[in-house]
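Figure 2 data, in text form.
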Amino acid sequence: MNLTVARQGRVFVAMCALIVFAAMADHAFAQASPYPNKPVKIIVPFAPGGGSDFIARLLSQRLTEKLGQPVIIDNKPGAGGNVGAELALRAPADGYTLLLAAAGYTVNPAVYKVSFDSIKDMTPIAQLARGPFIVAVNPKLPVTNLKELVEYAKKEPSKLTYASAGNGSITHLVTEFFLDGAGVDIVHAAYKGTSPALTDTISGNTQLVFGTVASTLPFVKSGQLKALAVSTPKRLAALPEVPTVIESGYPSYSVTNWHGLVAPKGLPREIQMKLNKAINESLTASGMESGMASDGLSPAIGTPEEFGALLATEVTRWGALVKKRNIRAE
């Protein structure tokens, strides 16, 4: 009986050793296999259906082909994008968890208490897209350009209110950036999202909004809103008659609505460059430019260093503005 038990014990130990050895072998094989050897996840820190989600899903289709592995979108909304950002930046730096960073990513450190550093805790991979914000007003407002808007605001300071997607949102910041440069104050009405901000500007409850192209252009085309300018140095192809803010007499104002991909800090250089190459190739693939154009964006092709420099510049700019204008999140 004791002999049988002893044999069973030896068999059990041998089986355990084989299981451990197999697991170690699988891990070693995975480590030795070229990246990627399993699905890649892109965390989108916003709900499905928005502009960031659209860009991520448009890219994932092409990136899946380039990498030879499924690229999966994982929506993790909350706290202005901070919930998803923290999840992504705390993941292993192995290239299998990436973050879709939008323009608000560089605003949040100044207006929220975050547990991560937007620059030090990430590895830049590539900028994906760029586009303008549309400066739009209620059509009944008696102005035809930005200069007239500023003059009207100075003469009738209590009659104008601008709408944003919320305190501390990117649309809040880009509007305050213009007002600061123009030397004028307009009352701020913070909404819970872009849709109600646009709705109240259309109805006349508010008079001014700086909106993304995807959300604002349809209302400009229908005549429900009047476009005065676009925020980038280059005019928007869909509104060629609308000048830029710079052309309108404010040479220091240039703001881009951008999207990009970052990874946790410590991502190996070879993986960073492989992803950058695959992304840039995806951005030049058939259908990408026209797909982004539907959201008023264009592909942004460049190096990780160029994207990293953009992030650092934006964090500095918005941090200084938040402090100067005493901006607070909700």
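Caption note: The radius of gyration is 24 Å.
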